[in-house]
Structures are given as C-alpha cells and as structure tokens.
Design a protein that fits this description.
AB_hydrolase_fold (chains A, B), homodimer, two-stranded antiparallel sheet
C-alpha cells in the first residue's frame, strides 16, 4: 500500500516536472523489398536493373520512461495525418505522447506505411496541392466553416488553426489497410504485448491488427468511421447519411476472425456535435452514421462474449470535442478518462 | 571551478543513465498559404473554390534538457532523408539526437519543407518506386556495391542495411533551396540563437540561412557537396569529376552576402574513402570534387577574415567514415570531435 502511494506521488511529480526517459529512438518496421530483374552495373548505377527498393514499412518513434507500466501504448494516426497527431497540440500544449509518458507508459508513435517519414512506397503516387482546408475544418467538426461550434474545444486563433492545417501530410502511395495492418502487427511482434490506440481511418487497420496478433491486449479507438467488422451473416443494413461519403456499410469477416475481437477489452470514443437524428448538416450526419454503426458493432462484439464499450463524450459530461479529442483544449480530461478505463481493465 | 566540475559530473551521469527532458514537442514553422479564387460553398465542400492550403513549412521535433547549454543545435538532413538521419542508427545505437541531448544541448530536428511529416507541398509531385539502393550504397560510400570498403564504419549485417535503406523518404514536391532556407530561418527567428548542423544537400540551405539570419551563431556541415558560395568575381574554375553529377561548380553571390559567412565559426567534415587524386571510381571521385571545392571555399572565407575549417576525418586519425559520419559505428568519436570544436569556439 505504501509502495502504491509512493508510486502515485512519483507520477504526480513527473506530471509537473522534468520528463524522465529510460530509452528513446526510432526504427522502421514491416514493409516489402522489391528487386528489379537484371544485374546491377556499377558503371551505370542509375539504371534500376538488379537494384532493390525497400518500402511500405512503418516508421516508429518511441520513448519509454523508467519503471514503465506493463503495456506500452502504440499510437496509429488517421487519414492525412502522421505521428504529429499525438504530439504537441495546435496551440502548443502537450499531446498524448507527453501526457501518457508522464503517466508512466511507454509510447510508440507510428507514421503508417506511405506517410510521413515512412514515405518509401512500393506504388507510384501523384500528390496535388488542392486547397481543401475549409472542408477539413468542417469534416473534423471544428464547426461549419467559417463558424466554430459554440462549445468547441478548439482554439479560435489563426495561428493555432494554421498549425492544425500544417500537421496534415499526404499519402506517398495509396492507402492500403492490409499493408498498414502488416506493419503494425510486426511492430507488436518486435516489441511485445501492448495497447493499440487508433484515430479515425486508423481504426480499420486497428481492428485487423488485433485480429491478426494476440499481442494486442486492448484497442482504444478515437472516432473510427469505416471498417467496422461483423461476422458473416450478421452484417447490419447500411446506415444512410447525408455525409459526403454517403451510406456507411459494415465489413463482413469470418466468425473465427471476429471472435478474436471478443477476447480483449475495447473502448471507442466519439466527441461532440454529432447529430442524434438524421440531418442535412453533412458533417454532423456523417459522424452520426459512424457512431450508430459503432454501437451496432459493439453490440455484436458483446453478443459474442466480448467487452466493447462505445463512449459518446457529451453523454458523460465531456462537451465540445472535435474529431481529435486527444488534442482538443480538454485533452487532459480525455486522457484521464482513458487512464481510468485502462485501470478499470487492469491494463495499467 | 567546483561548479564546473559538478556540471561535468552531471553530464557524465546523464550520458550513462536516464535522459532528462525539460521540454519536448513539435510544430510547423515557415511555409506558404494558398487561397483559391472564389467562395467556399459549405454545400459543395470538395470544390477547392475559396479554400486554403498551407504548405512548404518545415516540421520540427525538439527536446531541451534541464539547464541546457546556451545554444541549441538545429539539425537539417540531406537528400532523400528526414530527421530520422539524426535519430537511432541503422544498427540501433544512439544518434546525434540522444548523444547531444546527453551532452546538455537542446536539439531541434527538422523535416525540411516537402519531406517527411512536412509533406504538404505547394507544388505537385509524382513519386515513383524506382529501385536505386545499390546506387545509394555506393554514392554514400559504404563501399562499391556489393563490396564494403574494408575499413568502413558501417555495420555489415542485412538488417542494418535494410534499416538504412528504409530511412529514405521521398520529396513530396521539388527540392527548393529558397523554400527550405526561408523555413529554417524562421525557425531561428522563433527559437533564437543557435548552431545549425547540416548534412549533404542540407549544406546549401545551411549557408543561405546563415547569410539570411544572424541568429545562426555557427554552422557545422557534414559532407556538403553543392552550393558552395563565393563572392562575385572570385568563383573558382569548375572541378572536373568522374562522379555522376559531373563537374562541380561554385555559386556566385554578392560580396555583402558572402561576408556574413565570415562573421561566424564554421566547420565542415568529410569522411573516408574519398580519392586524393582524380580517379575513374565515380563515388570516390564525386566526393573528391566536393572536398576540393570545400577547401577552396574555406580559403575564400578565411581570406575575407572568416573562420572556416575543413576537416577530412582520416587526416586526424578517424578512419572509415561514410557519407553519414554522425551515424557510423564510430559516431561517438565523431560527436566528441564536434563537442570539442564547439568548446574551442566557446559555443557550448
């Protein structure tokens, strides 16, 4: 008991003061190796014949505090993002990287294959500079551009918004859930058991990684949208939506795969300003369909003996969150909720 | 004196033990903002009309130890690389990020504009998956593929080589020295005085940043090749080479700009296996031309009253270095030499 109190005091001290890092570094994990037919000619070395190309790996930056908790956290970003998602917030506060380090967790931040510092892709891509930020402002539920939602937990100064836009970074090859799943699974093989934290589009590879690799001891998904998986024969009807991606469909997978998701605790979080009923306001309705599908999915997991919880933050008194609850103005409160959930599930 | 000894002891302890971080985080700096003509239509939000696009910024991850030394180090990578250059080495040892943190320096690692996590580019780019790694093995002087140089300070196992290849990441927009210089200069404006450490292609923007911004208090350049600047009328003859980029030319700039480089200490390092005389071995000859041009350049800087030093590592007894001395097997020795130079110049 006294050791427990001592440990708590240390955590509190660390939350206020200097970060202690037992080990930090970076590496590539997963990926493919292509070899071009022919022989490499040292006198004609810009010819690809006989040369290799390594691509489709993930990049990982990790930090482990002294006396780290049992399970590290593995963070997988969403569409158009990189590991920056989990770092400093747009207005310069600490993100989940620092917050959970201070709570004593090892943290592993990924750039998924074909993104950020994991940019070597085995498939060709053309990147265009298409102005699209007012779309993202709205899609990510900061507000309905140019209006901010009245209660939004997002800073309203121009500099913060510019930082938020600049944290986007493009695909250097087409998004491929299987390529990402393979790399994330190999990360668990390399490091060992841990907790997978996903955001948005990362949710899909998150489910498939947990199915593929039993070293995933829990999944925490912030605002997943697509790729909710159901056992064959149990797919719900598509959920109609005025969102830009139209009706939301589930994904059918073999029951034996689905059952893997019933072996671990899973929590799914959604923020605020999501419609309760169908509406013509496309961003609010897009996320309504996501939240509804998440609830059908959790019901299916639990019907099969699993432990999946969907938390709509406003329902527990946490208001104003965007599509990025972990970097919103109240991200410490959001982090504390996750920490309490991890404790409740004996995962800390 | 006793305080000095105490500080030294603390450094030694930190070198062996836990990293102490007073502050760490990330942000975007510099860049442009494009606005598409027209009005944003909330009901047609995938139309670019009236929307904005932020791009051409640098991404920066920084860590500052407690009681940091006066000048932080700003690290700018070379061609095809990202900030990963300065992190964990291919064989899993600590890179300059950790080594200089442990020596008490704040470290700022950049992904230059249009690279890595700073991927939003204002110009379009097509990225191809062209096998080219045997070229890079040779160009970067690990050896003449498939042979390693006999004395090379590079690990010879397959896994390390794969990690080295996987740390490459492509341009998401054309390389543009001015765009990079602008972002790096704005980083100095934001953070304040510091020391700029460049690698290879980063050398060019390095010189121009030092010319543009007097908060650059010193430049450390590892194996710069192109963009050696000379005052108008003092350009040397191009240096012929059998290297793949042919003859190496200097760049003429106004004398008033050049003189900015004479106001700060500069050190330039080159590794091993560079030819002493012209040769048909193209990689050795490529870097021979770079080293020769560097020496002409340093002579010009010093003739104008500056303090530029070119160090060819084998000449001071440090053998076997590749194009990446800071991550080679002997990178602690390479770091210690830099630390001693910083001390000699009263920059630590």
């Amino acid at each position: 008991m006294s050791a427990h109190i001592h440990a708590q005091n240390k955590t509190t001290e660390m939350e206020r003061n200097v970060l202690l890092i037992e080990e930090q570094g970076s590496f590539a994990v997963g990926g493919k190796r292509i070899v071009k037919d022919g022989n490499f000619d040292l006198t004609n070395p810009l010819q690809p014949d006989g040369q290799t190309y390594h691509g489709d790996h993930a990049y990982v930056f990790y930090q482990v505090p002294p006396k780290a908790r049992k399970y590290p956290l593995f963070f997988l970003h969403g569409a158009g993002q990189s590991k920056k998602t989990w770092e400093t917030t747009a207005d310069g506060r600490e993100g989940f990287q620092n917050i959970f380090l201070r709570k004593g967790f090892g943290v592993y931040l990924l750039d998924q294959p074909r993104r950020g510092e994991a940019g070597r892709s085995t498939v060709e891509e053309t990147i265009k500079a298409t102005p699209d930020e007012q779309f993202w402002f709205t899609q990510f539920r900061i507000g309905n551009y140019p209006d901010y939602f009245p209660n939004v937990q997002f800073p309203k100064d121009e500099a913060s918004l510019a930082q938020f836009y600049r944290q986007m970074t493009p695909n250097t090859g087409a998004f491929d859930g299987k390529v990402i799943t393979d790399a994330v699974s190999q990360l668990f093989d390399k490091i060992g058991e841990g907790i997978l934290v996903t955001h948005s589009q990362g949710g899909g590879p998150g489910w498939f990684t947990a199915i593929k690799n039993d070293k995933v001891k829990a999944v925490v998904a912030y605002e997943p949208y697509s790729s909710f998986v159901f056992p064959e024969g149990e797919l719900p009807e598509p959920i109609q939506s005025t969102g830009l991606f139209g009706a939301l469909k589930g994904v059918e997978i073999p029951l034996s795969d689905f059952e893997k998701l019933t072996k671990i605790p899973i929590v799914v979080y959604y923020g605020d300003n999501i419609a309760k009923e169908p509406t013509q306001v496309w961003n609010k309705d897009h996320w309504r369909s996501g939240l509804e599908m998440a609830r059908l999915w959790a019901k299916a997991v639990n019907k099969h003996g699993g432990d999946a919880t969907v938390i709509h933050l406003p329902e527990i008194g946490i208001h104003g969150n965007t599509h990025f609850p972990f970097s919103d103005l109240n991200n410490r409160e959001v982090a504390d909720h996750l920490a309490a959930w991890l404790r409740e599930k004996s995962l800390d």
